[in-house]
Amino acid sequence: MADSEPRKIRNICILAHVDHGKTTLADHLIASSGGGLLHPKLAGRLRFMDYLDEEQRRAITMKSSSIALRFNDHSINLIDSPGHMDFCSEVSTAARLSDGALVLVDAVEGVHIQTHAVLRQAWIEKVSPCLVLNKIDRLITELKLTPMEAYTRLLRIVREVNGIMSAYKSEKYLSEVDSILASRPSSGEVGEESGVEFVEDDEEDTFQPQKGNVVFACALDGWGFSVHDFAEFYASKLGASAAALRKALWGPWYYDATSKMIVGKKGMGGGSKARPMFVQLVLKELWQVYQAVETDGKKGLLEKVIKLFNLNVPPRELQNKDPKVVLQAVMSRWLPLSNAILSMVVKCMPDPITAQAFRISRLLPKREVLNNGVDSNALAEAELVRKSVEACDSRPEAPCVVFVSKMFAVPVKMLPQRGPNGEVLNNFADEGEDGASGECFLAFARIFSGVLKAGQRIFVLSALYDPLKGESMQKHIQAVELQSLYLMMGQGLKFVPAAHAGNVVAIKGLSHHILKSATLSSTKNCWPFSSMVFQVAPTLRVAIEPSDPADMVALMKGLKLLNRADPFVEVTVSARGEHVLAAAGEVHLERCIKDLKDRFARVSLEVSPPLVSYKETIEGEVSNTLENLKSLTGSSDYVEKTTPNGRCVVRVQVMKLPPSLTKVLDESSDLLGDIIGDKAGHANRSLETQISNVAEDENPVESLKKRIMDAVESDILSGNENDKEHAEKCKRKWLKLLKRIWSLGPHLIGPNIVFTPDPEGMSTDGFILIHGASHISEKLGFADDSGPCATADRPSSEVTQALYFEGERLESSVVSGFQLASAAGPLCDEPMWGLAFIVEAYISPLTAHSDESEISHQHSEQYGIFTGQVMTTVKDACRAAVLQKKPRLVEAMYFGELNTPTEYLGPMYAVLARRRARVLKEEMQEGSPLFTVHAYVPVSESFGFADELRRWTSGAASALLVLSHWEALPEDPFFVPKTEEEIEEFGDGSSVLHNTARKLIDNVRRRKGLPVEEKVVQHATKQRTLARKV
Ligand SMILES: Nc1nc2c(ncn2[C@@H]2O[C@H](COP(=O)(O)OP(=O)(O)OP(=O)(O)O)[C@@H](O)[C@H]2O)c(=O)[nH]1
Ligand SMILES: [Mg+2]
Known about the structure:
- The protein is of the alpha+beta class.
- α9 (227-238) packs across α10 (242-248), α22 runs antiparallel to α25 (700-719) and α23 (669-676) packs antiparallel against α24.
């Protein structure tokens, strides 16, 4: 099978929203064309492709897997994919290996959020889609629609899906989410451009039933048809041309029985109750069969249909007492599902040769190479390789190019034990640690050019490989000898000695060379395929440890295997030494843990509650910038701390940065790292790709400076719309401040700033001020030459000079103190967010009452310690300053899109309210009974959200969450009710339950082992009450 002629191959995947019937459909295709793997009687119930226990138990697909089918003389590699959000990375891996996609839509549920996502994925990967409108039976039996109503509904779904496709085509697509999250309004230019394209591309719908690329199906009962199937039938029956019927069986066309003509609406005459041909000739017949089976008295109708369509149904099946069996017996013979689907696949989907010519620009985009200094032979060969991928050259002498879209684990015992000639294969060889764990890793791959053979030597190229860079690329290329090749039959594997271009296979022998995905090539002179696009990032993090510490090694090994087996999991070790597992969502996480426990680590585990990150900030009246600035530069409002040896006094003031500035700093951390880290050459290169709105020739430093200025200015303007003078004053003050940026934190690039102290606040009483240096301002281009010169006013006495010298050396301690503080705030040791500090550190000379030699000894000894003292004191002072200025907790927010039928709106709002969600907008979806609600949901409240929503709405509501932004909780974590009203409203402060911020902080502190103030004894009465209840 693996050596079919490329023109006779189709590589396809099934994509859809969760539960729209992908795996059920696959069952029918396997039953009819899978070479006896599945008995037709079990089709639709077995869910053959869901072979993992967890998939069967939960009844959802969790991974994409492939099966080779045979239809007429065609080989069809079918990949079933999961529809659940958590596994959307598997959709990317499936789409990459396919040329065509069957996009399913449940006729009752209509287009859902994952339908959008999979259409987008297909579009990005240049996969040709066909539409399957599934679960048509539900329109008859559940919604009890008339054929006409059903037609209107189907029409609307087809239109909607076409609308989505045309939006992608015109590149005008900006999802709701994107537009809300986009920080900058799109410029007029872009709008105009796409407007032009939009007009151009309005031409043709992607999905047109009359073209045969839409199938109407009921995967459960095993039937389906395209309008072409009916056209053939009616052509002979009505004596019309099949071609005319194909066009007229969808859309506003009517059959005039008297004149035997196909006419438009007008031709039917006003007032007539005419129905479009699709309703009259197609849907009506279907409805009749369903009704005939349901109501005993109408058996005659059934016979009429059997006769009309000349069906051969065994009487035994017709007499069955179960109406479902009768229905399936008739329908699957009348309109066999697999026939309808597979003929559409063969007819409307491209073979690998056609497809690769079209997909090449996505798979291997053309590289612009400047022809100077590169190895021209290498370049020429790489071009040739690209050409042979484009042509899907399957000759043995063509370069062999393969793409591996994921690695997956199978138990070793599942591998075929015997080769094609009956020889026993040694499956344990060369698998090392994997062999010992009973798991073997296979690559899920497609051959794009040449012939791949078992035992062949091949190069594994990582995504960063560049054939023109020679020696420096060594770490991105490895030479490997492949072991075996298999044809995938769902869970089963069939040994094949070789496979030609255009086929999908599993490869053994790459487990130690590929982690997630890679390109394989028989020559070094080949560019790696472009990376796949994933819809979400793994964001749900938990810490994992073995229940028995002795099992640590097993756990680490297990994590390594899991990381390899799952394309989307991330395993890291946190700063505190915990093993952190990141998954895409709760269902994904649960499966990972189960896999770890049962397959990869085989030890019992402890899993922490999800680790949620927070930030810490202060409450700041953003609108009152000038006041803020005054409080920062005025000298009264500071926290003062002294080092233990009394030689250094630290005064710290803190203020909240304008939110827009915080955002710019946060978003530009990579860029700042490049600028600050002095990696100038590198910076220039990486910047253009980072910030898309930077014009090519614009200096990235300049543009960042401008963004910072714009952020500050917009903030000033929004706060002082009416007071120009005030605004000017603020701006001048800010400009001055921006010349004094000493450092950013945490990690030197975070969204917090420490400014150098005001040089005018001068040294007194023998104490001198550590000036600091505005390094960052200089690097960002803010400082100018006229800035204050710190050395100008230096007194010249020897002692003071030594002191100045010491002060300069202590500057780094001050910065380190600030770094420590900004990395761990006072509330719960989480990083600070959007704060500006001014640190004034004064040092005094050593008191000279000992003799000289002792001083110098003491001096040097204490100096070592002194830097540490200064650092700690600065850190403590910064943290204390934050505590004094109304500290607030900042939490991450999801943007959520929820869909629900109107009747469940109430329960859905209840769930949202319990989760502290903020509703942004709600609207009725046009032409459907669904309501769409947009809301912000705190990440900390999102765990179990989907489950709760499902429970409360009987599964009718669905939600999609994407990470959006950081937001400060307005609540004061230290709020204690004082006035009578407050006590009445919030209690006497004995319970922290009302205080969400406090609760969250305490949770983090407990997790980190920090002291938590729990008023256990203080409120003993409360405890007694509790005790009595128990
Ligand atoms: N009424 C009706 N139910 C169907 C039809 N097709 C599938 N179902 C049911 O829909 C449910 C989901 O079917 P699956 O095939 O598992 O759906 P899926 O798209 O593979 O789901 P995921 O892989 O988890 O995304 C099952 O209970 C099926 O029996 C249909 O045509 N009509
Ligand atoms: Mg499925």
